[in-house]
Design brief:
Layout: E1 15-23, E2 31-39, E3 56-58, E4 70-72, H1 79-87, H2 112-131, E5 136-143, E6 145-148, E7 152-155, E8 161-166, H3 176-184, E9 185-192, E10 201-207, E11 216-221, H4 223-228, E12 236-245, H5 248-259, E13 273-274, H6 287-297, E14 305-306, H7 319-331, H8 345-352
Parallel strand pairs: 4-10, 13-14
Antiparallel strand pairs: 1-2, 3-5, 5-8, 5-12, 6-7, 8-11, 9-10, 9-12, 10-11
Helix pairs in contact: 1-5, 2-5, 6-7
Protein name: DNA2/NAM7 helicase helicase domain-containing protein
InterPro entries: DNA2/NAM7_AAA_11, P-loop_NTPase
Length: about 350
């Protein structure tokens, strides 16, 4: 038999919207189709080459690190943040990190922390590859003020300057580069084009996220950078710019792994674990969602350890709805305490309005 399924979509905002259509027949995901709708923009082939801006070339040179350059930092980070970044060095500088391909070693109590560190380093390398596509060699233009239609006129602090950098990619939220810029980039390293020898100074600059345009990024250049390079406002200079992955979140996750006192909480012995049981039913939940609800809200004899519950699946399978339903049910008992943690406030708002988590 053949069935034609119509999927309707409305939106008041431009952009690319992606969603998974999943048919599980109340058993398991059987048919999956990723739908993609671009509003008020021509649908582009993701494999096409980026549109290059005049006067800018892609930079594929070796990434600048503390191992091959003298990095002059800005004053944006606290001493505690600096110590955390030094404790967990980037993968290319960490002598304990050895990239492994297709490592199927099972997780155990003995290797749990090492595997978690490896996963985080692999994720960092993958994100850094996307961020590195933004690196450019070309002309920058300095200025002492910026005019934003949304935020008005902004003046650079005394001794500092702003500059604009043209990027050979469209920095929209629906492009990998635009998403990486919004989510993972807060700073860049900048230096004159003639500073290629080892141990040359490179200067950290702050990315002004709120004034970023589709093919242009604005940076804030700090005092030492402007002084050492004798930069003046309303001038053009040939510079190399390398955008930097914000490592603080990843380093915090490394720290959390090391501070974990007992891996049995996250990697329990399932043979000795109890399964909570609940008689609460919701007609709006399918069998899998009902099982998850029963696990979260149920009880067992108390003599067994309860393992953590991991809910995962493609977009639109009801993860947020199931968790929200369980939280509401638990909230009916004033003795219960519910703590909900997410990476962003957006996830909480999506959950309240029946949306789906961006993360899994």
């Amino acid at each position: 038999m053949t069935y034609a399924i119509t999927v309707s979509f409305t939106s008041t905002h431009r952009g690319l919207y992606e969603q998974w259509l999943v048919l599980d027949f109340e058993m398991r995901p059987v048919l999956l189709r990723k739908l993609k709708v671009r509003i008020d923009q021509q649908l582009l082939d993701d494999t096409k080459d980026p549109v290059l801006n005049h006067g800018v070339i892609l930079q594929s040179a070796k990434r600048w690190t503390r191992g091959n350059r003298v990095i002059i930092p800005c004053s944006c980070r606290t001493e505690k943040q600096e110590d955390l970044l030094k404790e967990y060095k980037p993968p290319q500088l960490n002598i304990h990190y050895k990239p492994s391909c297709n490592n199927q070693t099972a997780l155990t109590d003995e290797n749990y922390k090492a595997k978690m560190h490896e996963f985080l380093y692999n994720e960092e390398r993958a994100e850094d590859q996307v961020v590195s596509r933004l690196n450019v060699c070309g002309q920058i233009t300095t200025m002492d003020r910026l005019d934003s239609p949304k935020f008005g006129m902004e003046f650079a602090p005394q001794g500092e300057l702003f500059c604009s950098v043209s990027i050979p990619y469209k920095l929209t939220i629906d492009s990998p580069e635009g998403l990486a810029l919004k989510r993972s980039v807060q700073s860049a390293l900048i230096a004159p084009l003639d500073s290629h020898h080892p141990n040359s100074k490179v200067y950290e600059a702050r990315v002004l996220q709120l004034i970023t345009r589709e093919n242009q990024i604005h940076l804030q250049l700090f005092k030492q950078c402007c002084s050492d390079l004798a930069l003046k406002h309303n001038k053009s200079y040939k510079m190399e710019v390398q955008f930097q992955l914000d490592r603080h979140t990843l380093c915090s996750l490394h720290k959390a792994v090391d501070l974990l006192p007992d891996t049995s909480r996250v990697l329990p012995d399932l043979k000795n674990c109890g399964v909570p049981v609940s008689d609460i039913t919701y007609e709006s939940l399918n069998s899998k969602q009902q099982s998850a609800l029963g696990f979260i809200t149920g009880n067992h004899d108390g003599r067994s350890f309860t393992a953590p519950l991991l809910i995962y699946g493609p977009f639109g399978t009801g993860k947020t709805f199931t968790i929200a339903t369980a939280a509401i049910e638990l909230g009916k008992d004033p003795q219960n305490k519910v703590l909900i943690c997410t990476h962003t406030n957006r996830c909480i708002l999506d959950g309240r309005h029946g949306g789906t988590f961006r993360e899994t």
